[in-house]
Amino acid sequence: MKPTVLQLSPILIPSVSQKLNELYEVHKYFEIDDKEAFLAKHAADVHGVVSGGHTGISKALMERLPNLKVVAVNGVGTDAVDMAYAKSRGIHVTATFGALTEDVADLAIGLLLTSCRGICAGDRFVREGNWVKFPSPTAIPLSRRFSGMRVGIVGMGRVGRAVAIRAAAFGCPIQYTDLKKMDDLSYGFVPDLIELAHQSDALILCAAADKAEGIVNAKVLDALGKDGFLINIARGKLVNEVDLVEAVKAGKIAGAGLDVFVDEPNVPEALLQNDSVVMQAHRASATWETRTAMGNMVLDSLAQALSGKRPEMSLTT
Ligand code: 8YV
Fold this sequence. Notes:
By secondary structure, the chain is an alpha/beta fold. It folds into two domains: 4-99 and 289-306, NAD(P)-binding Rossmann-like Domain (Rossmann fold), CATH 3.40.50.720; 101-279, Rossmann fold, CATH 3.40.50.720. It is built from 13 helices and twelve strands. The chain has helices at 14-23, 35-42, 59-64, 83-89, 101-116, 119-127, 130-133, 158-169, 193-198, 218-224, 241-249, 269-272, 288-306; strands spanning 4-7, 25-28, 46-52, 70-74, 92-94, 151-154, 174-177, 188-189, 202-205, 229-232, 255-258, 277-279. It is globular, with a radius of gyration of 22 Å. It starts with a strand and ends in an 11-residue tail after the last helix. 2-keto-D-gluconic acid binds next to loops.
């Protein structure tokens, strides 16, 4: 008999879903209407869960699965899983470390370039026929140079480091903040986030959200200033979104490039309405290459855990 796996969110790579279905009895939880009836019948059979990174799994659902051995997170952020609870039950929680680093860093730079050069606004200008209507170069404002911008990186983990390498190639002086200075890095370490914002033209958020909710608040945005750009490819909740809306509306910062939001998929109206904000629908890791690599890591973690081994990527055991 195949072990039972509960899949909490869609997997977009056909080879990965095929393999998952071949090896396991898979229940797509997100397609089940009567979840209570499903749990009453199948909860005790479930040995593995596949969850999304930012969507995770609720503690309440873990509590309903008495024989759960592994939560294989299809992502690197485990902030949406109660790690202490999983640990207390000996449930392996695994992540796809290393698989998405390059793509997420690429999108961070993409968002910064798009924001400071006004690429999306420029595209809309041409697409909507405004270039023909208003051919004078004064019709579209000048943008800002990316090369050489002072970049401040918040969170110098795998993604932060990959962003730094890319920004350095554009001649950007780089400084960072984190819980501590990293001895293997020669970039400037600025322990205080407000000070880092003050010394940066662009602040790029790459930190895990576990203990950092709302760290980017009005004071940080004020310090970033009216010529500064905020880029977030990490988690929406790192930012106090009310303060961000206020800063964008009042022109207290020059612009923002956001892949993540506090209450996805809901985005504050004021951000939608503002041309200085460039947005994506939480898709920094959404390439065929990365999602295939992530999916394969999820399959490996399930296979290891469900054959009684400690998964290589386990964070809890
Ligand atoms: C994914 C993520 O969008 O890795 C993470 O933590 O948030 C993203 O890579 C998501 O987890 C896909 O499941």
